[in-house]
Amino acid sequence: MKRGDLLIYLFIIFMLLSSFLIYFFLNRIGGANQRIKSVVVEYKRQVFTEIPLPSEKRTVELKGSWGVLILNLDGYKIRVNPASPHYCPDKICMNQGWISEPPQTIVCLPNRIIIYYRGGAQIDGLTH
Amino acid sequence: MRRVFKYLPLIILALVIPFAYWVNKTEPRPETIRDFAMDTYLEITIYHQPGEAVLEEILNDFKLLESIFNRYDENSVIYNVNKNAFEKPVSIPSIFENLLQESIKLSGYTEGYFNPAIGPLVDLWRPIIKGEEDSVLPDIDLIKKAISLSKTENIIINEPDGQVSFTILGVSLDFGAVVKGYAVDRAFGILRNRGVDRAVINAGGTIGVYGSPPGRNYWRIGIQHPRKDGIIGVLNLPSTTVVSTSGDYERYNIIGGKRYHHLLNPFTGYPAEELVSVTIINKNGLFSDAVSTAVFAMGLEKGMEFLTQKSLSAIIITSDLQIHFTGEAERLFQPEL
Amino acid sequence: MDSPTNKMVRICILTVLGVVLNLIEPPLPAPVPGIKLGLANLMSVIGLYSLGTYSAIWITILRTITVNLFLGFDLRGFLSLGGGVVSALIMEAVYYFYKRETGVVAVSMLGGLMHNFTQWLMVVILLQQPYLVVYLPFLLLSGVLAGVFIGTTGAYTLRRLGGFISGKDLQS
Predict the structure, then answer these.
(1) Which helix (H) or strand (E) holds B278?
(2) Which of B168, B211, B317, C148 is most exposed, with the fewest beta carbons within 10 Å of its own?
């Protein structure tokens, strides 16, 4: 082995070590895979609000075309509160319960509200 | 000479890099639109720049289909047809005639299990399934009457004049089972005309993937678990395909411990039993939608026989949550652990 | 014998060999599953150490462009061009400045590492998918391992055939 080779080896080891360190660091802060970034609420094609995830336990009021929906957030989980006083006429969104990951969405037709995750998409679509 | 030789590689690079960059420019990033049309949720993602015009065109087409085929909208073509076609022939636009004829063909193909004339039965069950107050289970005589009305033979298409008429009073068309798949097919046509390379069209659970997936080998389409949140598995699809699922978990109402859902058997007149979910994988959306509806009504044995005989790819889930495959489906399916 | 024409012809021969290796490699079984050896880079290393400065970059660029003419220029071609050029440039630089202090194997390992690192960097920048960082350690390691293989094979070839390739055998 020549003298300069040592420097090259040191550089290679440095690159490998730092890449592994980045990898483990990212793994620690919650999944190095595509991560869920936020939850987006759209009303009539416009982004009404976007909330970064994970979120602390909180509620958000959403005014739609029909009435007001109360959104519950807890970590990555989201639901429309089934006890929302200003109910939506077909109640599908209210009875849906918690969603926890993409591509799950909450869709409220009468209110024209769409709630979906940004980031973290593992599949292209959901057939049902 | 020697000098040129030394620097030539860099000169070539200077020429190639802009070219390669240009090639790479044609690899567009996805653009997504979300909206409602046809009484359902739509999500369209295209890999094309600029994408907005194409997205708007597809969305407008969906809205056009809604204005024609929504049978509960008094201004729609189908409402007018269902109301007046017995008294006098009604003029219909070419889209309507096209879908009607294709549907009648598919009705024959599925031995009547998919039925575009099922309107009378749907109207009978609709209050129950929607869970409307004071709704009672329909009387057997009413069901028998509705079954006799729900025959495609009662429809007469006058092709040269572009008109349709009914032979008996009370016939009613309903394209609810296939309009989403038809919309996906039309969207594919728009994508082709606009030179879009790849796209995902989600029309209320009927999903069309168009072209090859971006930077990977497969499109990944999840199949809803019929009895709980989340997915039962994923389909890995290499290229343009429409996946359509008929499930009893979408629109239903439970009365006296029994589940009454929107997938009616046109021969018994009651919601089909035995199966909980049927997924059809095909190049054509209208076909996928019609066959998934038909196979759901056929039940396990008849459905499996039909699918095998026609060599179609399908995933059938029975009420005990057993998964059955036909055709290519097992190879494409990846269960969710 | 040290005329530009002579060197150019020898570079072209190595390029053609590289193209062939490039085209026949995919169907061959990989020694370690998932690791692409990049056998064609062997020709760049051999060229560098037998024909001297500028030959590695020449061989790499010509080979990548030729192979892409066969397979169609797409994103993958762009990536392999970028990775190849950066790794060849780095090997050229090390050879040019530290020829006496470095050996074939180490330089080839450095080349392999930089090849994969550049490709990864290009994917992250072009496709804007930073989560791809998960692949980095594996890619770098496989680049280094491929470099070890290319380096030892190259050193062995050079010891036996170096004179023949450079044409120095004929001079003596």
Answers:
(1) strand B275-282
(2) B168
What's the gap in Å between the CA of C111 and the closest CA on chain A?
10
* Cβ contact C140–A16 (<8 Å): yes
Among the candidates B158, B184, B216, a domain finishes at: B216
Torsion (CA) B123, B125, B131, B137 in degrees, nearest 10:
130
Structurally, chain B folds into a number of domains equal to 3
Helices (H), A1-128: 3-28, 92-95
Place of tokens 């994988």: B281
Domains of chain A by residue range = 1-32, 36-119
Q: Which of residues 67-126 of C touch A (CB under 8 A)?
A: 94, 98, 100-103, 105-107, 109-110, 113, 117
According to CATH, the topology of domain C4-167 is Arp2/3 complex 21 kDa subunit ARPC3 (1.10.1760)
Q: Is C121 left (phi over 0), alpha (psi -120 to 50) or beta?
A: alpha
Averaged pLDDT, A111-119: 86
Contact between B34 and A97 using a beta-carbon 8 Å cutoff: no
Position with higher pLDDT, A101 vs B183: B183
Of A98, A107, A124, nearest to B41 by CB-CB distance is A107
pLDDT value at residue B178:
95
Q: Do A109 and B39 touch (CB under 8 A)?
A: yes
Indicate if B123 and B192 belong to the same structural domain: no
Return the residue of C nearest to B27 by Cα: C75
**C69 contact B CB<8A:** no
Contact B23 C57 (CB under 8 A): no
Write out the residue range of the structural domain in which residue B76 sits. Answer: 72-166
Residue B135: give its domain's CATH number: 1.10.3980.10
Residue at B12 is within a domain: no
A80 to chain B, any CB pair closer than 8 A? The answer is no
| Whether residues B66 and B199 fall in one domain | yes
Q: Which chains touch C (3 or more CB pairs under 8 A)?
A: A, B
B48 and B28 in contact (C-beta within 8 Å)? yes
| Amino acid at site B234 | V
Does residue B4 form part of some domain?
A: no
Neighbours of B92 (CB within 10 A): 23
Name every chain B residue with its beta carbon within 8 A of the beta carbon of A103: 222
Q: Does C101 touch chain B (CB under 8 A)?
A: no
Q: Which residues contact C31 (CB under 8 A, 6 or more apart)?
A: C37, C149
What does the pLDDT look like over B186-196, one tens digit per residue? Answer: 999 999 999 99
In a domain, residue B154? The reply is yes
The answer to whether the Cα torsion of B139, B141, B142, B143 is positive or negative is positive
Sequence-separated (6 or more) residues with CB below 8 Å from residue B286:
B99, B102, B103, B106, B178, B181, B182, B185
Q: Specify the CATH number of the domain A36-119.
A: 2.60.320.10
Nearest Cα of chain C lies from the Cα of B49 at a distance, in angstroms, of 14
Residue C115 in this model has a pLDDT that exceeds 60: yes
Give the Cβ contact number of residue A33 at 10 Å.
11
Return the closest-CA partner of residue B333 out of B220, B224, B230.
Answer: B220
pLDDT in tens, A37-61: 788 998 888 888 888 888 888 888 8
Interface of A with B in 18-57 (CB under 8 A): 42, 45
